[in-house]
Amino acid sequence: MKREQVLSWDEYFMGLAHLSALRSKDPSTQVGACIVDENRKVVSIGYNGLPIGCSDDDFPWGREGGMLESKYAFVVHAELNAILNSTRSLRGCTLYVSLFPCNECAKAIIQSGIRKVIYECDKYAAEDNVIASKKMLRAAGVELVQLDKKISIEVKITEK
After folding, report:
1. From the candidates 4, 79, 120, 127, which is the catalytic residue?
2. pTM recorded for the entire structure
3. With contact defined as beta carbons under 8 Å apart, do 47 and 78 qualify?
4. Which pLDDT value is given to residue 151?
């Protein structure tokens, strides 16, 4: 008999997004993203972090202060990282992301041709940037689906 207690596809791909988020150096918010095509093949992954070539030690990670003293001018969001990391067209793909995308990421999602966003957390739903994001995504015909259960990944890092 086959094993019955297995992850659903949504749980599996959201789990990959969470695993990717563990690469983030951000001390307050770790976000991961996974892009999947219509054949359930992983196309790309990403997490929130600095652009390639920018040292994690040379830029701020705080949430407070002016634009140049905080992380906000420098960090690339998980969704945009996954889009930029892809080596193929994303038309018709699904994006799994642990935190609902901001308005800037929504623009990239729409322009890339992603047709569905499956997300877990929507803790900033009342913020203007998320309201704008939802308005644009819906206007562009992108399907939005919030998972009804939280996915957790436990990874034990051991030293060699």
Report:
1. 79
2. 0.92
3. yes
4. 79
